[in-house]
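Justification of resources, computational component.

The compute hours requested in this renewal are based largely on the per-chain cost of generating structure records like the one below. Each record pairs the submitted sequence with a full structure-token output. That output is archived, and it is also reused by downstream analysis tasks.
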Amino acid sequence: MRSAFAHTAELDLAPGSDETAPGAAIDLEVRPVAVLHTEAGRCGDRMRLRVLFACDVDLEDEVRRRIDLALASRWSVRDALPGAVRECERAEAERLLNA
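The structure output for this chain reads:
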């Protein structure tokens, strides 16, 4: 059975760095096992990421591990935590489930 999940992370991102690189790294690492949507916002030298993903419930922990691995491979991760899909994200979560 597939379900939708959320994961959040905050990392250090040097000035002038490619702001799309963390999302791309997550995409490369996660695509084999899940579909996803990533939102990112920068505040100074920090990047906050929110990843929605859909996968088989048995793969949830594996996907979260892959997200953390993708980020830790190139950036200093300040925080990475499971999150709940918010009400305002339900439509995107449904889209991912149907992808």
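Residues 60-72 form the longest helix (13 residues). Strands lie at 2-12, 35-43, 46-56, 77-83.
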